[in-house]
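pasting for ref
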Amino acid sequence: MAKTRRLISENLGLVDAVIEVTDARIPFSSKNPELGKLIAGKPSVLLLNKCDAADEAETRRWLEVYRKRGLGAVDTDCKSGKNVSKVLPLIKESLKDRISVWEQRGMTGRPIRLMIVGIPNVGKSALINRLAGSKRAKVEDRPGVTRGKQWIKLSESFELLDTPGVLAPKFESKSTGLSLAFTGAIKDDILDVETLALMFIQKLRSVCPSAIFLRYGVECDELSDLEVFEAIGKKRGFLVSGGEINYERTAVMLLDEFRSQKLGRITLEPAEAEYDAF
């Protein structure tokens, strides 16, 4: 991660503006606090990506939070292409004074150079491919795919510097680490997936309890988190010899179904006053 931070710092002088990509399901935890320090003073636009997987009303509230603080922000979804067409015009608007100076100096037609940054697995590569109109960046649904910097020509007017996803060296809180783990920004093989799934149930019950009943037919009101977990396993028939629950299989299924949107549009971090994403 230190190498990526150094890469961003060393190349910041080559670009005119920065696009920061976050995950609309976890707007607070997916906004790396270090990036704000690294790109200080450089015009930037914030994308709440994967918005089609997040609660629409909560996304609107988050956008309002950012805009009230003077930050250009837009909700996007790289899979459907939703609002991707708004990104480059928003960048151009943020640079209108600088573009005017270029034109006065006879630099008409100079391409705007951008840097795209964000933590792993927020959809940066898929977004780049949408902006470029073709597959220019490698895309996989797992963190850590982009390995080094690469310049990508989006059009005659825009050039973009892609960088590997970068996480903060340490999480500000346990809840931040959990949010990143729930969405897959942290690789599952370094975590206890059963414990993670149990904590996901606890989180889901607080932000969208109806999702459990609608998807699995499990009433949660009188049950503990563990009992809800076991009831889901039984509903799916994930049993081993003796009728015991297959906890690992149940855990993997539960997290996979959240990440693939089978539980519906869910925002794990509502736009509440306690969050300070800057």
